[in-house]
Amino acid sequence: MNARPLALHWRRLAGKGFAALAAIIAITCVQWSPGEARAAGLFSRPAADIQSLDGAVSWVNSPPLTPQSLRGKVVLLDFWTYSCINCLRTLPYIRAWAEKYRDLGFVVVGVHTPEFGFEHQPANVQRAAAKLGITFPVAVDSRRAIWRAYGVQGWPSLYLADAKGMIRNRQLGEGGYAQSERVIQQLLREAGRTGVPTDLVSPQGEGTQAAAGPMPAQSPETYVGAAQAERFRSPEGPLRLGPSHAYQPATSLALNEWTLAGDWKVGEEAAELQRTGGRIAYRFRARDLHLVLGPAMEGKPVRFRVRLDGQAPGADHGSDVDANGIGMIDSHRLYQLVRQSSPGRERLFEIEFLDPGVSAYAFTFG
Predict the structure, then answer these.
(1) Among 5, 149, 160, 335, which residue is least crowded by beta carbons within 10 Å?
(2) Phi/psi zone of residue 34: left (φ > 0), alpha (ψ -120 to 50 degrees), beta?
């Protein structure tokens, strides 16, 4: 897969601005070292102390890892969060690398650093890791201690350390898989490993883990919570933070505008439906549409119905919806609601909730 532009695969930068993105790109550029290392995509600088992994509140798939247990290993630190579509799409590659190079002294350590409140809970992270087929160790970084120690700016971020504990490569966002794997191979050879393969993996992800479409989405990530909501439309004006309010939907939406209908209580990071029959509509242009959702009460699923341009999605349904547009919200996670063969035209997406008690957090596209 060809690496795509960084801006299309970099989720939720601190500050959300292009200035922050430019600063990160500038930092990355000046860290390349000369000669062959530059050509190979390598740089060398002192790594953040691996003991900073002690900031994890718990671990999944492993006891706490220590500097001693990682000594002499080539280590990939994968900063991710399980509601992030960009993170999910990297997983087929990371799982494949972990399996392919495990016996050569290569270790993947996932660092799960949350965005939304539900992602702070270790039990939720453990369930998500199991559902996603993650068997490598995961540090649950709910306090962002490890994130801060490494100066991470967004999801996903991949840091490769050599057997001496030096950070030698950093990948910001999706893509760059071929270069990352070549760096893994070179660092293993530098560590004296023999029989290091020269071929590259080419996994095929499914559902939310499938690769992004060939054309960039024309719709941006959009938050439903009041703290970061943009392009909301209603005849009554902006979102109302606080008590429940009966929203009247906008009668028409321009590209990338959205609206609510029904009785919603809007908080800082999500909107919670109070009564059956509430709806969200969004006019978008992209191959895929995802929405981070969760039931208000664990163990009490919420049924929903999706429509595209007023009709059942048919062949354009996502992996969490059937062709009739029917689906079920059973846990807090990212749901793929639309998967089209191409992003050729604007579509009006509508989701109607057939039960009360659902929280909606953010749209993402691909």
Answers:
(1) 5
(2) beta
* Residue 152 identity: V
Specify the CATH architecture of the domain 6-209. Answer: 3-Layer(aba) Sandwich (3.40)
The residue among 40, 14, 291 whose CA lies nearest residue 157 is 14
Q: Any idea where the domains of the chain sit in the sequence?
A: 6-209, 222-365
CA distances in angstroms from 129 to 132, 152, 301, listed in the order given: 5, 21, 20
Q: What is the DSSP string of 201-254?
A: ------GGGSPPPSS--SS--EE-STTTB-SB--TT-S--BSS-EEEPPPS---
Token representation of residue 71? 């000594």
pLDDT tens-digit map of 162-200: 999 889 999 999 999 999 999 999 999 999 999 999 999
CATH class of the region 222-365: mainly beta
- pTM (whole model) above 0.85: yes
